[in-house]
């Protein structure tokens, strides 16, 4: 009886809002559902509770969220089925409405009518909230307990276990613990091979594994896993996932020296991001194309592109990427031995302040470029100082190759100053870092 009352309330309110906005049923239904479905819903004769995906599509066109819809028509959440509430939590998480998500999670945790599988789903949703709100340690503890529980079950749910391991990988990844992220993504990927057919979760896991392999410079593995993710995203028509995969594949092909493939992938990802109106990522794809591809053929044009992007980032309020674009343009200027322009660009980048700057890999890169610039203009003390700062920051986030690059600048600076003993000590540190990277690349 309650479900019928909910359907009538939902239908009446949607009809009211639709007419208020001057939309026909066909206009509101377009892209969300069929007109006949909407007609039945508005009349209150649809036989069951509509899916939240459909309701969210309708609500988006009417300018409110599903949660706001339920609140406006005074639907008592306790009367809703558990699966509907679990879906509603997912909607709130997607919309970054974390307080509302936590509120429903707390309500469901107190209910006694949840099945074991539903409690597992609820724990996964809580873990997603914890990760999104940067409570990584709590997320790892919760997910580890859930992993152990699932593994002890006689008839384990492989799909859910893979999801748990994938989220564990996410929590470790955002903690900058790349090795633990890699281990969990790899285990999750192995479980996806047991799936009846590849699905969105399998694609996401392959994407995450490829991305962390890229960071660790396991280039062959990164390419294989990202190509696999690309193929699945194409089959299931998941365009945003596909755009991101093309973007990171471009970086992998750049890393292995295939600049022709990298160029095409950067262009394709930018076009796809723009079609999805994800303009920030479209700008980053253009940034990579300008820096890695265009700068080789037409350095002045590449610098112009990077400066345009810096201006766009400034207008968007994205100070970290504004500084990063200046640093990239400075590096291209250094390669052209245009030290005057490089100096001005580095001053602009260094002057910019933003939250989290001292923990940002983009800032570590800025310091690396600054170290190279000051070495070339014979300001050795400043070069050594910036090189060590850059190396330390890259080391904290486990970017070993970039760390080694920064330390090598310090070695050259010491040699330039005739301090060969100090240079030798740092060279040994470089060897240690590269040996660690080589050992990692030999992991099974």
Under CATH, the topology of the domain at 197-297 is which? Serine Threonine Protein Phosphatase 5, Tetratricopeptide repeat
Mean pLDDT: 90
What is the name of the CATH architecture of the domain at 197-297? Alpha Horseshoe
Number of strands: 0
Could you tell me the radius of gyration in angstroms? 26 Å
CATH class designation of the domain at 197-297: Mainly Alpha
Could you say which structural class the secondary elements and strand pairing correspond to?
mainly alpha
Q: What fraction of the residues are assigned to beta strands by DSSP?
A: under 5%
Uncertain stretches: 440-444
Order of helices and strands: HHHHHHHHHHHHHHHHHHHHHHH
Summary, kept brief:
This protein is mainly α and 444 residues long. Among the domains are: 197-297, Tetratricopeptide repeat domain (Serine Threonine Protein Phosphatase 5, Tetratricopeptide repeat, Alpha Horseshoe); 299-355, no CATH class; 360-444, Serine Threonine Protein Phosphatase 5, Tetratricopeptide repeat.
List the topology elements.
Layout: H1 2-20, H2 25-29, H3 35-43, H4 52-62, H5 66-72, H6 82-94, H7 98-110, H8 116-132, H9 136-152, H10 158-174, H11 178-192, H12 200-215, H13 219-236, H14 239-255, H15 259-275, H16 279-297, H17 299-316, H18 319-335, H19 339-351, H20 361-376, H21 380-396, H22 400-416, H23 420-441
Q: Any key phrases for this structure?
A:
444 residues; mainly alpha; Serine Threonine Protein Phosphatase 5, Tetratricopeptide repeat; globular; disordered C terminus; coiled coil; TPR repeat; HTH-type_regulator_Rgg; Tetratricopeptide repeat protein; Lambda_DNA-bd_dom_sf
